[in-house]
Each structure stands twice: as structure tokens, then as C-alpha cells.
Design a protein that fits this description.
Elements lengths: L3 E5 L4 H11 L6 E6 L2 H15 L4 E5 L5 H10 L4 E6 L19 H19 L3 E8 L22 H9 L9 H22 L4 E5 L15 H18 L6 H13 L7 E5 L8 E3 L10 H12 L4
Parallel strand pairs: 1-2, 1-4, 2-3, 4-5, 5-6, 6-7
Antiparallel strand pairs: 7-8
Length: 307
């Protein structure tokens, strides 16, 4: 039973609503709000307490794009957590392919590297007891209606995954959604590798689906941001049955953490060519997800950047 939960990126959007829904479960005794901005975290904590009538929220300052911040946050924990929701992410700011001090792109750092460090440190300190859930995306296996193609790697070698993480794979591309999809794919493979390495824990990748009201699109170029955030997501996509509200995205995360019938090492998302509705195993649509060599190569590539 998951009594103590940590959620990254918990001060807004899906992360905050996941914290709200988690607190409404009687079994939940504490929710750690892992956030990089203290003021926003405090505002979210106050709002959540008012909404749920519970004082079970505790702030942990953590910037997942910076490994040292993650390590300090884990060291500050006075107790283990039962469940981890890795929600923090995005398009990597205004310079998504700019490298960090760790040698990965900003997008890789925000969506992946910090969470890898977080899981590693929690396990090393024996502070993760039951389940880790990673926020993946349907873009990993492609969405034909949206013009999103699944990653099509040449070799799926450790070197190729390394090039995705450091940005060299993409050359001069300006298609941030394609970059995002490749990084989410790499992360999803990493989760499957972790499931095999740590059979005593559950590792679930779960897409929140096409969710309105999130900050993910804020980092797109001006034209794409206007199209996705103010026209596509709130108007066109709901009409096509391709978008739902934040609470529905958060419900998926609650399911990912608490539904014991979900198989460890598996990526769950909408049915083929959909972004809403019931979730299911994505490997029948994209068999590469189950390739253990690809999983291990992604895992090795990521850890190659961790010092």
C-alpha cells in the first residue's frame, strides 16, 4: 500500500492535480511536492490543503535538470517513500538542444537525466519501497492523426542513444516535438531496463494522454505555441476526441502508481492513434519497446552522463 508518495513538478498542471487526487485517497499519509521554485511550491501546498482539507503535503526543493539538486533532495528525506511519480518535464525551455554541464541537452536533463539520478539515489539509500512511475507520452509510438511519427533508429545502439541525449542525433532540426519523442522513448526503455534490474520494485511508464492546461507547450516556438496551446489543444483536439482535462491525465498517474494489475516494465498509453480513453500496453503497436538489448543500451547511454 502506498502511504507516502513523491511527485516531481508538483506545483502545477498534472503534477498538482495528481497530488490532489492522491490526498483524497484515505490510505495516503504524506505527499512530497518536489518542486524547483519555493514560492510556487508554497502556493501549491496552500491551495492543495484548502482543496483536500488535509495537511499532509511537504515541500522538497528539487530541480530535476540538476543532478546535485536531486542528490541533496534525496539526502534530506528523513523517511523512505512508497511511490514516486516522475512528472516534471517539458520542451526544454527556449534552448532545448543547448548542453548542460553534464553534457546532455536541456530537454534531456529536464525529462530524463534528473529522474534517473533520483531513482538511483532513492534505491541506493533504500528510500524507494514499492513503485516508480514515469510520465511518458503517446509521441513515443507515434500518433498518425497528429502527424507524429514513432522514433525510427538505425541501430538502437548505446552510441545512438547517447547521440539523442547530447543532441548530436538531431543535427540542425528545429522540430522540438520529434526531439521530445526520442527522449521520452529513451526514458521509457530505461524504465523497462530498471524493471529487470530491480524485480522487487515496480516500474511503470504511463502517458497522461492529450491533456489540456499543462505547461508542456509553453516552451515551443511562438507560432507552434499559439497553435497547440490556444487553438489545437483547447478547441480542435477535443472535437477530435484527442484531448481531455487535467484531472483525467492525473487519474492515469494515480492508476500507474496504485493499480497492481499493471505489469512492471510496461508502457501504458491510449489505444492506437488515440490520445484519450482507456490505457493499454503499447508494445503491440511498437515492438521495439520490448527489445531488451535496446532497453539496456538506453540505460547504459543515460548512465554514461552520470558522474
Amino acid at each position: 500500500m502506498n502511504k507516502i508518495v513523491m511527485i516531481t513538478g508538483a506545483n502545477g498542471g498534472i503534477g498538482k492535480d495528481t497530488a490532489r487526487q492522491m490526498a483524497l485517497l484515505k490510505r495516503t499519509e504524506k505527499v512530497y511536492l518536489a518542486c524547483r521554485n519555493k514560492e510556487k511550491a508554497e502556493a501549491a501546498k496552500k491551495e492543495l490543503e484548502e482543496l483536500t482539507k488535509r495537511s499532509i503535503f511537504e515541500i522538497v526543493l528539487m530541480d530535476v535538470s540538476k543532478p546535485e539538486s536531486v542528490r541533496s533532495a534525496v539526502a534530506s528525506l528523513n523517511e523512505p517513500i512508497d511511490a514516486l511519480v516522475m512528472n516534471a518535464g517539458g520542451m526544454g525551455g527556449k534552448a532545448p538542444l543547448e548542453k548542460t554541464a553534464d553534457g546532455v541537452t536541456q530537454m534531456s536533463a529536464t525529462n530524463l537525466l534528473g529522474h534517473v539520478v533520483l531513482v538511483d539515489e532513492l534505491i541506493k539509500a533504500d528510500k524507494l519501497k514499492n513503485v516508480a512511475m514515469y510520465a511518458s507520452s503517446e509521441v513515443v509510438r507515434g500518433v498518425k492523426k497528429m502527424g507524429m511519427k514513432a522514433p525510427n533508429l538505425k541501430t538502437s545502439s548505446e552510441e545512438e542513444f547517447t547521440s539523442i541525449l547530447d543532441g548530436s542525433y538531431f543535427g540542425a532540426t528545429k522540430d522540438t516535438m520529434a526531439v521530445y519523442g526520442h527522449i521520452k522513448y529513451t526514458a521509457t526503455l530505461w524504465m523497462s531496463a530498471m524493471a529487470r534490474k530491480h524485480p522487487n520494485l515496480r516500474f511503470i511508464s504511463m502517458s497522461p494522454g492529450g491533456t489540456k492546461g499543462t505547461a508542456v507547450m509553453d516552451d515551443l516556438t511562438f507560432f507552434k505555441r499559439i497553435m497547440f496551446k490556444y487553438i489545437g489543444m483547447p478547441i480542435l483536439m477535443p472535437l477530435m476526441g484527442m484531448a481531455h482535462n487535467v484531472d483525467k491525465g492525473a487519474e492515469r498517474f494515480i492508476k500507474g502508481v496504485n493499480d497492481a494489475s499493471l505489469k512492471t516494465g510496461t508502457f501504458y498509453a491510449s489505444a492506437r492513434n488515440k490520445l484519450t480513453g482507456p490505457v493499454e500496453d503499447q508494445s503491440p503497436f511498437f515492438p521495439d519497446l520490448k527489445n531488451e538489448n535496446f532497453q539496456d543500451n538506453a540505460d547504459k547511454a543515460i548512465h554514461g552522463f552520470i558522474r
